[in-house]
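Incident review: delayed structure delivery

Summary: a single-chain prediction request sat in the queue longer than the usual turnaround. Root cause was a stuck worker, restarted by the on-call engineer. No data loss occurred. The affected request and its eventual output are reproduced below so the record is complete for anyone auditing the incident later.

Affected input:
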Amino acid sequence: MTDPHSATTPPPQAAASAGAAPRAGSAGGAGGHPRHGLDEVIHAPVRFSIVATLAAADKAEFAFVRDTVEVSDSVLSRQVAVLEKAGYVAVTKGYVGKRPRTWLSLTRDGRTAFAAHCQALRAIAGGGG
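Output delivered after worker restart:
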């Protein structure tokens, strides 16, 4: 099983042969294809959208992210739990007046992983790295 806290998770076939995922643009692996730099935690469309939304701010309210990504509370909550477990998102709870609020923010590891993931996508699309 791969470590959910690693910055990149190799595809199953690469994990069996390589042990660890080479970074995008590295010479590791057979041919060093940039797809090996994709982060499986971030790559899922809803999680990618969440991380992209959070990358634009220091922190964002749960409801703002939910509305921006256009998902339900339960879907956002489940996907944020995956990102939090990976160490990519920090969840802070508090109050505004008497109303409970939840804020989400990218951790330093989350920002690093997102940048590497975007770099790998650009390299795959032919836009350089």
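Verification: Strands lie at 60-61, 89-96, 99-106.
Action items: add queue-age alerting; document worker restart procedure.
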